[in-house]
Automatic annotation (TrEMBL):
<keyword id="KW-0663">Pyridoxal phosphate</keyword>
<comment type="function">
    <text>Phosphorylase is an important allosteric enzyme in carbohydrate metabolism. Enzymes from different sources differ in their regulatory mechanisms and in their natural substrates. However, all known phosphorylases share catalytic and structural properties.</text>
</comment>
<protein>
    <recommendedName>
        <fullName>Alpha-1,4 glucan phosphorylase</fullName>
        <ecNumber>2.4.1.1</ecNumber>
    </recommendedName>
</protein>
<keyword id="KW-0119">Carbohydrate metabolism</keyword>
<keyword id="KW-0328">Glycosyltransferase</keyword>
<keyword id="KW-0963">Cytoplasm</keyword>
<dbReference type="GO" id="GO:0005737">
    <property type="term" value="C:cytoplasm"/>
</dbReference>
<dbReference type="GO" id="GO:0030170">
    <property type="term" value="F:pyridoxal phosphate binding"/>
</dbReference>
<comment type="similarity">
    <text>Belongs to the glycogen phosphorylase family.</text>
</comment>
<keyword id="KW-0021">Allosteric enzyme</keyword>
<dbReference type="GO" id="GO:0008184">
    <property type="term" value="F:glycogen phosphorylase activity"/>
</dbReference>
<keyword id="KW-0808">Transferase</keyword>
<dbReference type="InterPro" id="IPR011833">
    <property type="entry name" value="Glycg_phsphrylas"/>
</dbReference>
<dbReference type="InterPro" id="IPR035090">
    <property type="entry name" value="Pyridoxal_P_attach_site"/>
</dbReference>
<comment type="function">
    <text>Allosteric enzyme that catalyzes the rate-limiting step in glycogen catabolism, the phosphorolytic cleavage of glycogen to produce glucose-1-phosphate, and plays a central role in maintaining cellular and organismal glucose homeostasis.</text>
</comment>
<feature type="modified residue" description="N6-(pyridoxal phosphate)lysine">
    <location>
        <position position="660"/>
    </location>
</feature>
<dbReference type="Pfam" id="PF00343">
    <property type="entry name" value="Phosphorylase"/>
</dbReference>
C-alpha cells in the first residue's frame, strides 16, 4: 500500500489550484478540484513507476508489450485510489475541504478509446499485469475522438462526436521530447550494396511522426505502476520545411492537417468505413511507433538482436496490429542487418497472436494495391514471407495441392489481390490463441484447420477474464465490503479465494445482507433511470439486463420477441405473468449497421407500447439506457438480477460481460456459447438458465432452417410475429420494421432466432417461478459470486505469462510480508 501523507497531498492539491490553474482555492470549480486531486494522485503513480522501472532494469526482466488498436480503460480516479490503497484517506482529506469524493469521481469523463469487449479486455489485462507485478506495457492510439456518443431521438440512435480531452486529461503525460519519424508512401528501388547484396531503397517516401503519451497503470497494492503508451500523429517538421522553402505555404498546412488526421478518430467496428485507407494507415502507425519504441528500450540494455525474443514478447490483440510481422522483419533485416532466416526465427519467437472472432466477414483483408501505395517495403517483405511459406506448404502437403496453397497463402487471389491479415499473423507468430475453450476449438477445427494440421503446437486457449478490482471492488463497494467482512481481503489479489463464500450459503443473516446489497444497487439504478430517461421502475421487480453492442448475433431481437410475447399475454389474454419484470437494454449500434439501428428503434417502440399502457406497466417495463460505456456498465452490472447472454451458439468468441454480471450475483440466462460454457462448468446448472441449440445443433440445423415451421408449431410465436408485421408497434410509421420481419422469416437467418424461442420462453418462466423464493434466489446469486473466481483476468494473465510470454512477477511474495 502506498502511504498517504496528508500534508503533502494537501500541498499538491492546493499548489495545483493556485499555481497551475491560477485560482484562489475557493474559486475552484468541480473540474478544477478533480484535476487537482488527479495531479496529487499522479505524483504517487510517477514515484512508484520510477521504482518499478528500476526494478525491471536491475532484474533485466523480460517484458511483454500488448499491441491493441483499442484500450477501453474507463475512468481512472477511483480505480487508482483503490489500487494504491489510499481511497479512504483521500476521501477524508477531501471531506475536510468540503468536497465529496463520490461526486467528484462522476466528474471524470469516460475515455472511450474502444468499441467494446476487445478494448475492455486489453484494459483488464493491463490492470492484471500491474497487479501481478509483471512487466507488461500497452501500446495503442491516442485518438482525438473516441467511439461516438449515442443519443436517442424519437427512438432512433443518433451519433455525436466524443471529443476526448486528450490534450487536457490529467492522467495523460505528454512526452514532448520524444518522437518517431515514420516513412510512408513512395517507391522501392531495387539496388545493390558495394558487395553486390540486394539492398532495396525506400525512396520518394513521405514522413510523418508519432508522439507518445503515457497513462500510468497502477497495480493492486500499489507496488507496481506500468504504463500504457498512446501515440498521436503529427506532421514532420523536416518535411514541412522543404515545402515551406518551396514557398508553398498552403501545401505545407494541408500536409500538416493530413498527418494529424491519422489519429483523429476511432473507427466503429462493423462499419464499412473500416475498409478505408486511413484505417490501414492507423494500423501501420501503431505498429511502426510501437516497434520503434520497443527496439529503443531493448537497445538501452542489449545489443545482440539474435537474442531479442529472450527479452521481448509482443502480443497482437486481433489482426489489427498484424503488420508487426513485416515491420519487425524490416527493421531486423534492413536496419539491424540480420540474415533473413535469423530475423525470421527471432520474429516468430517474439510475436504471438490472439484471435477474437469466427465471423468470416470480420476477418481483416487489405488490398495489395493499398499496401503497395502506403508501405511498399512491407508489401515486398510480405511477398517474400509468403513465398518461403508456400514452399513449406508444398513440402508438407505436396507440390500440387493447390487447394491447400490457395487457402493458406497470405495473398488471396481474385479480381483484386488481397493480404489476409490472419494468415500473416498466424505464420509470423509462435502462438495463436482463442479466448474461450469452445472458441479455441473452433479456431482449430473450423476457422483455420489447415494451419492447425501444419503447426498443432502453435494453437492454444486463453479463456478471457475481467479484473475484480474494477468489476467488483470499484463498481460494487458494498458487495466488496460484505465479502471482505466475511473472508478477509486477500480475495482481491487472488480471486480463487472467493469460493470461501460458499460457507455462507445457508447463513440467513449473510444471505439477507447479500440480498440487501443487491436491493440498494437496484434502487440506485432505478434513481438513475428516473434521472436520465424519466421512467419509473419498480425496484422490487426482476431487473433483467442485456447490455452490450447491438448486433444480430447477440440477439437482442430474441429478447424482444419474448418481451412482446409477455406484453401480448397480459394485454390480450389478461393473464398473470408472475413477478413484475423490468427489461433493461443498453448498447451502441455501428453507424452504418442499419439492421442494428432498427433493433434499437424496435426496442423503443415496444418500450413505448408497454410503458404507457396502464393494463401492462405494473407488471412489465422496458428501458433503453443510451450511451453504453464503461461507467454505465459499472452502474448496471451490480444492479442486475438476470444477465442476458443469448448469442447464437458458435458466434460469441467468449464474452466478458457475462463474467462481470455473474461475479456481481446476476443469474445468467444464456446459450451454450463462448465463456457461458465455462461459467456453467464453474457455477453449476442449478445456478444458471441454459437454453437452446448448442454449436453442433446450430451447424446441423442451419442448412435446413425453416422459420415458418416454428411459427406453425407455436401460437405464441405466431402472434408475436404477426404483431410485428401488423405495425402494432409502429402505428405512426407503418412498415418500418418490415425488413426485421423479413430477416426473421428468412430461411437464411443465420442467427436462428425462432429455433431458440420456445426454450427461451421456458427458461424465462423458470426464472419467474424461482424469483418468488427470495432466499433461494439469493443463495444461487451468491453461488455465482462465490464460483466465478476463475474469471479473474489475473488467472488469464498468469497463463499468458507462463505459456506464451515467458515473463514473471518482479516482486516475490516472501520479499513483502
Ligand atoms: C464488458 C464490456 C463490453 C463487452 O460486453 P460483452 O457482453 O462481452 O459483449 C462492452 N462494452 C463495455 C463498456 C464493457 O464494459
Amino acid at each position: 500500500m502506498a502511504y498517504f501523507d496528508f500534508t503533502s497531498f494537501e500541498v499538491s492539491f492546493q499548489q495545483y489550484v493556485k499555481y497551475v490553474l491560477g485560482k484562489p482555492l475557493d474559486e475552484a470549480t468541480k473540474k478544477d478540484q478533480l484535476n487537482a486531486v488527479c495531479y496529487a494522485v499522479g505524483k504517487y503513480l510517477m514515484d512508484i513507476h520510477f521504482d518499478t522501472r528500476k526494478r525491471y532494469e536491475k532484474n533485466k526482466a523480460k517484458q511483454v508489450y500488448y499491441l491493441s488498436m483499442e484500450f477501453l480503460i474507463g475512468r481512472l480516479l477511483s480505480n487508482n485510489l483503490l489500487n494504491l490503497g489510499i481511497f479512504d484517506p483521500c476521501a477524508r482529506f477531501l471531506k475536510k475541504q468540503g468536497i465529496d469524493l463520490e461526486t467528484l469521481v462522476e466528474e471524470e469523463q469516460d475515455p472511450a478509446l474502444g468499441n467494446g469487449g476487445l478494448g475492455r479486455l486489453a484494459a483488464c489485462f493491463l490492470d492484471s499485469l500491474a497487479s501481478l507485478d509483471m512487466p507488461g506495457y500497452g501500446y495503442g492510439i491516442n485518438y482525438d475522438y473516441g467511439l461516438f456518443r449515442q443519443t436517442i431521438v424519437n427512438g432512433y440512435q443518433q451519433e455525436r462526436p466524443d471529443y476526448w480531452p486528450n490534450r487536457s486529461s490529467p492522467w495523460l503525460i505528454r512526452r514532448s521530447e520524444e518522437k518517431y519519424v515514420l516513412p510512408i508512401y513512395g517507391k522501392i528501388e531495387e539496388r545493390q550494396d558495394k558487395n553486390g547484396h540486394y539492398k532495396p531503397m525506400w525512396t520518394r517516401k513521405k514522413l510523418f511522426i508519432g508522439r507518445p503519451h503515457d497513462i500510468m497503470i497502477a497495480g493492486h497494492r500499489g507496488r507496481t505502476v506500468n504504463r500504457l503508451r498512446l501515440f498521436s500523429a503529427a506532421a514532420s517538421k523536416d518535411f514541412d520545411i522543404d515545402i515551406f522553402n518551396d514557398g508553398d505555404y498552403i501545401k505545407a498546412v494541408k500536409r500538416k492537417i493530413q498527418s494529424e488526421s491519422v489519429t483523429k478518430i476511432l473507427y466503429p467496428s462493423d462499419s464499412k468505413e473500416t475498409g478505408k485507407e486511413l484505417r490501414f494507415i492507423q494500423e501501420y502507425f501503431l505498429v511502426a511507433c510501437a516497434i520503434r519504441d520497443i527496439i529503443r528500450k531493448f537497445e538501452k540494455q542489449h545489443s545482440d538482436f539474435e537474442t531479442f525474443h529472450d527479452h521481448v514478447a509482443i502480443q497482437l490483440n486481433d489482426t489489427h496490429p498484424a503488420l508487426a510481422v513485416a515491420e519487425l522483419m524490416r527493421i531486423l533485416v534492413d536496419e539491424k542487418k540480420l540474415v533473413w532466416e535469423t530475423a525470421w526465427d527471432v520474429t516468430v519467437k517474439t510475436l504471438a497472436f490472439t484471435n477474437h472472432t469466427l465471423l468470416p466477414e470480420a476477418l481483416e483483408t487489405w488490398s495489395v494495391y493499398i499496401l503497395n501505395k502506403v508501405v511498399p517495403r512491407h508489401l515486398q517483405i510480405i511477398f517474400e514471407i509468403n513465398q518461403r511459406f508456400i514452399a513449406r506448404v508444398k513440402e508438407r502437403f505436396g507440390p500440387d495441392n493447390h487447394e491447400m496453397i490457395a487457402k493458406m497463402s497470405i495473398i488471396q487471389e481474385g479480381d483484386e489481390q488481397k493480404v489476409r491479415m490472419a494468415n500473416l499473423a498466424i505464420i509470423g507468430s509462435h502462438s495463436v490463441n482463442g479466448v474461450a475453450k469452445i472458441h479455441s476449438d473452433l479456431v482449430k477445427k473450423q476457422l483455420v484447420p489447415e494451419f492447425y494440421s501444419m503447426w498443432p503446437e502453435k494453437f492454444n486457449n486463453k479463456t478471457n477474464g475481467v479484473t475484480p478490482r474494477r468489476w467488483i471492488v470499484a463498481c460494487n463497494p458494498e458487495l466488496a465490503k460484505l465479502i471482505t467482512d466475511a473472508i478477509g481481503r486477500r480475495w482481491i489479489a487472488d480471486l480463487d479465494l472467493i469460493w470461501e463464500l460458499e460457507a455462507f450459503q445457508n447463513d440467513p443473516g449473510f444471505l439477507e445482507r447479500y440480498g440487501a446489497v443487491k436491493q440498494a444497487n437496484k434502487q440506485a439504478l432505478a434513481d438513475y433511470i428516473r434521472d436520465t430517461v424519466s421512467e419509473t421502475v419498480d425496484p422490487l421487480s426482476i431487473f433483467d439486463i442485456q447490455a452490450k453492442r447491438i448486433h444480430e448475433y447477440k440477439r437482442q431481437l430474441l429478447n424482444l420477441l419474448h418481451i412482446m410475447h409477455l406484453y401480448l399475454t397480459v394485454k390480450e389474454d389478461k393473464k398473470d405473468i408472475g413477478p413484475p419484470r423490468t427489461f433493461i437494454f443498453s448498447g451502441k449500434a455501428a453507424p452504418g449497421y442499419h439492421t442494428a439501428k432498427l433493433i434499437i428503434k424496435l426496442i423503443h417502440n415496444v418500450a413505448h407500447a408497454v410503458n404507457t399502457d396502464p393494463a401492462v406497466n405494473r407488471q412489465l417495463k422496458v428501458i433503453f439506457l443510451p450511451d453504453y460505456r464503461v461507467s454505465l456498465a459499472e452502474r448496471l452490472i451490480p444492479a442486475a438480477d438476470v444477465s442476458e447472454q443469448i448469442s447464437t451458439a458458435g458466434m460469441e468468441a467468449s464474452g466478458t460481460g457475462n463474467m462481470k454480471f455473474a461475479m456481481n450475483g446476476a443469474l445468467t440466462i444464456g446459450t451454450l456459447d463462448g465463456a457461458n460454457i465455462e461459467i456453467l462448468e464453474q457455477v453449476g446448472k442449478e445456478n444458471m438458465y441454459i437454453f437452446g441449440l448448442d454449436v453442433d445443433e446450430v451447424a446441423a440445423l442451419r442448412p435446413n432452417y425453416q422459420p415458418k415451421e416454428y411459427i406453425e408449431k407455436d401460437d405464441r410465436l405466431k402472434r408475436v410475429i404477426y404483431a410485428l408485421r401488423s405495425d402494432r408497434f409502429s402505428p405512426s410509421e407503418p412498415g418500418i420494421f418490415r425488413s426485421l420481419y423479413n430477416s426473421l422469416m428468412s430461411p437464411g437467418d443465420s442467427y436462428l432466432n425462432f429455433a431458440d424461442f420456445i426454450p427461451y420462453v421456458a427458461a424465462h418462466q423458470a426464472i419467474a417461478n424461482d424469483y418468488q423464493q427470495p432466499e433461494k434466489w439469493s443463495t444461487r446469486a451468491l453461488m455465482n459470486t462465490a464460483r466465478t473466481g476463475f474469471f479473474s483476468s489475473d488467472r488469464t494473465i498468469k497463463a499468458y505469462a507462463d505459456e506464451i510470454w515467458g515473463i514473471r512477477a518482479q516482486i516475490r511474495e516472501k520479499d513483502l510480508w
